[in-house]
């Protein structure tokens, strides 16, 4: 596992945010998870609280809303809240939970861009390097944004960064979940732990069955890490 100087990494990310954003505002979907919390904390450090806006988008009565509120309150940033259930339910064409989960992610992206467009803003992504590597994000959903500040930090490094930034302990310690359905957790869905994933991505040998799963996910999700394919007519 690589060893990082978290202070230096924090400085680099803050400088990168300032350089890319310029004088614009930024909008972040605050999910109640550690990735969006770390992203919000870094954006406030980079831009000041008045230029950072949180957008809370629960599906009905989600329990994670209290953690989202804790983040925006601690940072003292303005936030907007929209229940996405009435919108998502209109687009349910099947009971397939993965189809519905993708609709949820894409509705959230649309709402984020609506707020950003209305206030001269940019949408800030919250995907980490671990998730980016295996495609654990929705194409044109949570993968749709203007800047990904933490995309070069592994999940295990995000947890360390969260402690250094004084993110609420409850958010750091709870099981990672996208909150897409009842009792959903990232690691159960992936079929391995983030620690195993981060070890593999950094060249550490792990269980061969898990290695095979990860390799397949990397190959199958390659299209997510590129712009749409075009057909040459030259």
Structural class, from secondary structure content? alpha/beta
Strand order of the largest sheet: 3-2-1-4
The Cα radius of gyration reads 18 Å
Q: What number of domains?
A: 1
Strand content: 5-15%
Largest sheet: 4 strands, parallel
Q: What fold name goes in the CATH topology slot?
A: Rossmann fold
SS summary, helix count: 11
Q: Helix-strand pattern, N to C? A: HEHEHEHHEHHHHHH
Overall mean pLDDT stands at 95
Envelope shape: globular
Query: Low-confidence spans: pLDDT under 50, at least 5 residues?
Result: none
As a percent range, the share of helical residues equals: 40-55%
Which architecture name does CATH use? 3-Layer(aba) Sandwich
Q: Just give the CATH class.
A: Alpha Beta
Q: Number of DSSP strands?
A: 4
The CA-CA distance between the termini, in Å, is: 46 Å
